[in-house]
Amino acid sequence: MLLYLYPFTNDVKSMRRVEMFTIFAVLMMVGSYTINLLEIEKLENKKERKNQFGGGGSLEEQCSSITFEEMFIYDKAIFDIRINEDWETAEVEAVAWINWTNADDIREDFDEYLDGYLPSGGDGWISTDEIAPVLLIAADCLEYTITRMGFRDGSPHRGGVGVDWKNTSWQNDGMEIGHFNGIPERHIDRRDCQGFSQDGCYEIPVRPNENRDCDVEIENSPSIDECRIMIWLNATMEIPGVTNSNDFTLTFNSSNISNAQLDFTFPQTENLRLDLWEECEGRFVGPDNENNGSYSTPIRGSCIGDGLTKFTLSENNDSSLTYSIFPNMNRAHWPGGEDIFADFTTSPIPVDIPPQWTQNAYPDNSWIPMYGFGETKFAEWGDISTWFVDDSAVSELEILCFSNLSPISQSIDKSLWINIQNIEDIIEITCMAEDSTGQQTENRTWFVGSPVTISTTKNVLEGPHPLTLEYTNIWEKQIKVSVKLTQGGSVNSAQEFFIQGEGSLNDSFTSFKTVEISEIGMIPGQVNVWIQISSDNYSIEKILNLGIEKLGSPPIIENFDFELEDRRLKFSGFYSEPDGQNVNFKLLSSDEELDIIINDYGNSWATEWIEIGEEISGLTTFTISSCDKGGMCTTKDIVVNLTNVNVENIDEEIIEDNRIPASGIITIFSSLLLAIILRKGDA
Q1: Structural domains in the chain, sorted by start
Q2: Non-local CB neighbours of 274 within 8 Å, separated by 6+ positions
Q3: Contact call for residues 479 and 369 (beta carbons, < 8 A)
Q4: Distances from the Cα of 381 to the Cαs of 302, 395, 411, in angstroms?
Q5: Cβ atoms within 10 Å, residue 575
């Protein structure tokens, strides 16, 4: 498996180019580099390159959001981290192997990043003169990158508000990066550098031939890549979070990392041991604008990992401890992240005690309402993990549950599921927890069911709208039902109804209650029902689609009128919108929309002045069209006599459906009759 770590894209090549360009570009912005005798132009003068990647910024701003893995996409890497005696710093040595097409991609990227800065940049060849400055720039940038590691002393926890686990950093001016085989010396296509170069400079094509012949002195092998690159790193990491090494937590963000090994060697500390290790999945590590905020800080010991990341703990000859982790996260989890927590302590191993229930768990004999039938999630692991406390991780406890009706199932994420067949099912659930030594909590029994359903026989919204509550009479506790019609957004001012069953286990019948719910505030379209069922201090809420729809009404136009001055027209009128929606207006002449501004004043409207062209004359029909957000429209017509410049308003009566007012028809008919008589007289 190859490593791909891209918090903002799944496009491997494009992401690497963005990150590697950042490494190169930001340093060019803070100064100029001399490579041999060629001075590279500052990035401030290369605005077209800056704009490609979102603008400038300081070296720290450009590099502080990336990691080593984003700069060098490796096939395998080993990191040796040795914490110094003062617990304030650590010496880090790393080796990364980059093979096959990954090696080709990096060489090609190096060459493209130099395009525009060196005469030979972007020519498809990479030289010994070019690779050195690129790695120098990478070293400077790495000083500001994310280490992925965090140290905090004191009582173990998993963070929370105001806690930043990214509290380690690289020491300034302490980063060294080297390479092996970056420019293979015995490459089959090796040639002297073209153009200006120093003595001894040679270059190779960024992509080898189909045989990948990067070493002419050895035979090609399908298992060994002659074109591989090895990157090594030496650095000092600063650790500000440990003043007492007797109790501390080491965390590592292993999101999207595979084929890596990290060895942490601690200073010799008497009785130091690993108290708890856990693999916490699910933290969002994608772009901030895509984060829905659903992730919450886990409780210590509650994390359920996928088991892919492993760890070992070994004692060295000097009695110091080396803690090794082997991240191997599945890329399919992206943008879900993974954090590895390791709690270390010198405290004695505590006496094993049985697990205990907490105040967060349902008390014994609770009545817990649900809603709906069939397979129903009774409890999520995020809640279950708060029900118990133990001296070991809660995630290692076995949760044992059984019921009087159907089996209780536990999914892979440790959620508990029940099967409610109908409204009369009251499922009696008994649960306990057991640790690895067989010690158990006491049993607790709860009564779970779906005691209320809601329905309607009216699919067109009425005011108020009738709904029917069906409830079981064998539910022993009082039920409060809160209901409100909703079309999204916050739910408040719900109507409440109280139901009390007879509580007799000998009765299996249900009862019905008709309620009327206010329709105020609903607009045309689908209308959902928000319902909350509360009983015995527990509640559940749902948003249901019962097939209810509000039919809209079109806007109403009144007092459609016009003003005429010379050859300028202005139309105006009043309107109302029964559904309270915004209204859009347009004016048409001979079924063609006029390109004019129509001002909306809340309950009235008016056009700007319209210049009437000389080609327009005679009786002209204008139409005002008003449409609401739901697409319901109203149109009204008015006929204006534009026979001559000094037009008189022959009729201002408003009509609908493009019909001419009755008085207008008489006028036209009279004019036609007079014309016929006159023609006959002339004949």
Answers
A1: 12-322 (no CATH), 356-449 (2.60.40.10), 452-550 (2.60.40.10), 556-670 (2.60.40.10)
A2: 313, 323, 342, 343, 344
A3: yes
A4: 8, 9, 10
A5: 22
Band (112; pLDDT cuts 50, 70, 90): confident
Whole-angstrom distance, CA of residue 643 vs CA of residue 667: 14
Query: In the 8-state DSSP scheme, what is residue 655?
Result: B
Contacts for 514 with CB less than 8 Å, ≥ 6 apart? 466, 467, 468, 469
Measured CA to CA, the distance from residue 56 to residue 50 in angstroms comes to: 6
CA 25 → CA 19, 20, 97, 128, 433, distances in Å? 10, 9, 25, 20, 57
Which long-range contacts link 274-277 to residues 24+ away (Cβ below 8 Å)?
274/313, 274/323, 274/342, 274/343, 274/344, 275/156, 275/343, 275/344, 275/345, 275/347, 276/156, 276/300, 276/301, 276/341, 276/342, 276/343, 276/392, 276/393, 277/311, 277/340, 277/341, 277/342, 277/343
Residues constituting the chain: 683
Show the tokens assigned to 146: 């994310």
Q: Where are the beta strands (DSSP E) in 266-408?
A: 273-284, 310-315, 321-326, 336-345, 356-357, 366-369, 374-379, 388-389, 398-403
Place of tokens 């229930």: 357
pTM to 2 decimals? 0.69
332: helix, coil or strand?
helix
Residue 568's H or E segment, with its range, is strand 568-576
CB atoms within 10 A of CB 537: 11
pLDDT, tens digit (0-9, with 9 covering 90-100), for 462-501: 989 999 999 998 899 999 999 999 998 777 789 999 987 6
Backbone angles phi, psi at 332, to 5 degrees: -65, -15
Whole-angstrom Cα distance, residue 649 to residue 586? 22
Neighbours of 19 (CB within 10 A): 26
Q: What share of the chain is helix, strand, coil (3-state, %, to 5)?
A: 15, 40, 45
Q: How far apart are CA 49 and CA 122, in angstroms?
A: 14
Q: Which helix (H) or strand (E) holds 384?
A: helix 381-384
**Rounded CA gap, 479 and 436, in Å?**
40
Distance CA 453, CA 511 (A): 11
**Cα-atom radius of gyration of the chain, to the nearest Å?**
38
Question: What does the pLDDT average to over 660-664?
Answer: 40
Whole-Å CA distances, 647 to 465, 608, 670: 54, 19, 19
Beta strands at 568-576 and 610-611: parallel, antiparallel or unpaired: antiparallel
Q: Residue 34 above 60 pLDDT? A: no
Helix intervals (H) in 516-574: none
Residue 350: exposed, middle, or buried by beta-carbon count in 10 A (0-12, 13-18, 19+)? exposed
The rounded percent of the chain whose pLDDT value lies above 90 is: 54
Encoding tokens for residue 560?
Answer: 């459609």
Q: Are 432 and 442 in contact (CB under 8 A)?
A: yes
Would the pLDDT of 640 be above 50? yes
Q: Could you give the CA distance from residue 635 to residue 585 in angstroms, rounded to a whole number?
A: 10
pLDDT at 161: 64
CA distance 297 to 282: 10
Q: pLDDT digits over 191-227, tens only?
A: 999 877 778 899 999 999 999 999 999 988 888 899 9
